[in-house]
Amino acid sequence: MRRTALGSGLLLVLGGIVGWGYVSYLDGNIKHGALSFGDQGSVSSDSVGGTALNILLIGSDTRDTAADLSLGGSRSSVGGPAHADVEMLLHVSADRSNASLISIPRDTMVDIPSCTDPTTGTVYPESPHEQITDSLSHGGPGCTVFTWHQLTGIHIDHYMMVDFGGVVSMADAVGGVPVCTDGNVADPYSHLRLTKGTHVIQGVQALEWLRSRHGFGDGSDLYRTQVQHMYLASLMRQLRSGGTLTDPGRMLALADAATKAVTVDDGLDSVARLVGLADQLKNIQPDRLITVTMPYAADPRNPTAWVIPMPGDAERLFAMIRGDVPLDSHGVRAAAAAPPADPAAAPDAVSPDGVRLTVENGSGTPGRATALTSHLRALGYTLVRNGLNAPVREHDTRLSYAPADRAAATAVAAALHLPPDALRESPDAPQPTLVIGSDWTSGGVFPVVVTPSAGAVPTTAAQQSGSENKCARVNPVYSW
Question: Which of 36, 90, 414, 420 could form a disulfide bond with 344, CB atoms 3.0-4.6 angstroms apart?
C-alpha cells in the first residue's frame, strides 16, 4: 500500500510538472504587443456592472517567411509593408448572451490617425482618406485598433492577428470546416477549386476559401467578407458539435497551433488569459451570433475601386455596437447603468459671464469649435475660449471639469442639451473643457440620439445568423 501510495503521488507530481511545462511552452509561443497606439477613453458598464467585450480580428498578408510565401503572393512583397486584408470586430454582449461579427472591407477609405510604434519609436503621420488595410503598415496592429476606434467610436479590448501560415495550421488543428457553393468554382488567383455543394475544407484549401474574391459574388472584396462569415459561422458550429472542445488530443493540437499562429495584444499574452477569454464565449448559441458587413457606398473619388462608410447606416450599426444592442431580433437590449443627475436640475445657480471654458473641435468637421464658441458667447458665456482643433479625433462629445467647477460645467451642459454621460469629472482639468465629437457635427444644441432597437440592423448591411447554412454565390466568370 505504501509503495502504491508513493507511486501514485510521484505520478501526480510528475503530471503536474509536465502540465506546467507544457503550459509554459505554449506561453512561449505567443507573440504579443501594445493594444492601441492612441487613447480609446473609458468603458461604461451595464446596470449589474458587466461590460461588453470587443475583439478586433486581423488577417495579415505578410509573406516574410518561406511558409507564407509558398501559400500565395509575390516575392516582391517580402519585407514590405503589411496589410490588414481581413478586419472583423467580434462584439460580445455585457451579459455574454449574444455576439456580433462586423467586417469592414479592406478597400474602405478612412482617415488613419497618427500612430507611434512603441517598439521602434517611429512616428507615422496622419493619413487622410486612405484604405483601411494600410493601417497595419503604420506601425502594426495597434494602429489598426486605433483606426477602428476613431472611425466607429467603439472601445476595443483586444486584438488577434493571424497570417497565411497561421490560417492553415489552425484549420488543420480543427479538423476541417464544412462550406457550400451554389456552383462549380475555380478561382485562378486563390487556386480554390470546388464542385457545387458542400465540402469539408482544411489546411491550404481553407486559406484558399478565405482569400477567394474573384471566384465569388461580383469578384470584389465586398462579397468576400460574406464568404468569410460563412466559414466562421460554420467553424463555430463545428467546434460546438464536432467534439473538438471535449477531445483532449484535438484541444492540445488546437492550443499548440493557435499559440504559434496568432499575435495578440499584451492583455492576452498567456494561455491562462486566452482560456479565460474562451470561457466567456462558450455559452453563446449559433442563433445568437450575427455576422454583418458594414454598410458602404462608392467613393466619389474612385467609385470603381474604393468604398466609404455609408452615411447614416454605417453610423447606425456602430451605434448599436456601442450601445450593446443585440443584432439578432429575439434579443433584448442590455440594461444601461443609471445615468447621473440631469445637468439642468443642478441646484447651484451660476452666472454665465463668470464661467471659463475652452472649446475644442475633435469632430473632424471644420469650424465646429468656432461655431460653438460664438453660440455660447451669444448665450452670455463671454469668457469662452476657442481652443481650435483637439489633439486627436473624438467620436463622443465630452465636457471635462475639476470637482470645484462642477456647477459651471453642469450649467454649460444644460445650455447645450448635452446628455448626462457627456460630463466627465477630472481632478487634473485646469478649467472646464468641451471637446466636440463626431456625434455632433452641426447646430448649437446636442442632437437627440435614438438608439436602435434589438435586431434593427440597417437593410444595407449584408447579414446572416450563425445558425444559417448558406452557400457562397459563384461568380459566373469563374464557374466551370
Answer: 414
More confident residue, 284 or 49: 284
304 and 364: one domain?
A: no
Judgement on whether residues 315 and 349 belong to the same structural domain of the protein = no
- Taking residue 73's Cβ as centre, other Cβ atoms within 10 Å add up to 15
According to DSSP, residue 196 is labeled S
- Kindly report the number of other CB atoms within 10 A of residue 255's CB atom: 18
- Check whether residue 322 and residue 367 sit in a common domain: no
Length of the chain: 480
CATH number of the domain where residue 98 is located: 3.40.630.190
pLDDT band (50, 70, 90) for residue 477: very high
Q: Looking at the predicted structure, is the pLDDT value of residue 208 above 80?
A: yes
Say yes or no: 305 and 392 in one domain. Answer: no
- Is 446 within a domain? no
Query: What is the extent of the structural domain holding 414?
Result: 343-436
| Closest among 118, 114, 108, 111 to 88, alpha carbons compared | 108
Q: Where are the beta strands (DSSP E) in 165-237?
A: 177-181, 185-186, 193-194, 197-201
Task: Using the predicted structure, report yes or no on whether residue 151 has a pLDDT greater than 60.
Answer: yes
Q: Which helix (H) or strand (E) holds 373?
A: helix 368-378
- β-pairing, 433-436 vs 357-361, is parallel
Closest by CA to 336, choosing from 46, 42, 93, is: 46
51 within a domain of the structure (yes/no): yes
Residues 188, 142 share a domain: yes
Same domain, 49 and 171: yes
- pLDDT of res. 16: 46
At 28, the amino acid letter reads G
Q: Which CATH number does the domain housing residue 417 bear?
A: 3.30.70.2390
For residue 10, pLDDT over 50 is answered with no
Same domain, 172 and 253: yes
| Residue 11 one-letter amino acid | L
pLDDT digits (tens, 9 = 90+) for 218-272: 998 899 999 999 999 998 888 877 666 666 667 777 778 888 888 999 999 888 8
Strand partners, 265: 33
Same domain assignment for residues 324 and 356: no
The Cα 115–Cα 38 span in angstroms is 7
pLDDT of residue 44: 64
Q: Is the pLDDT of residue 373 over 50?
A: yes
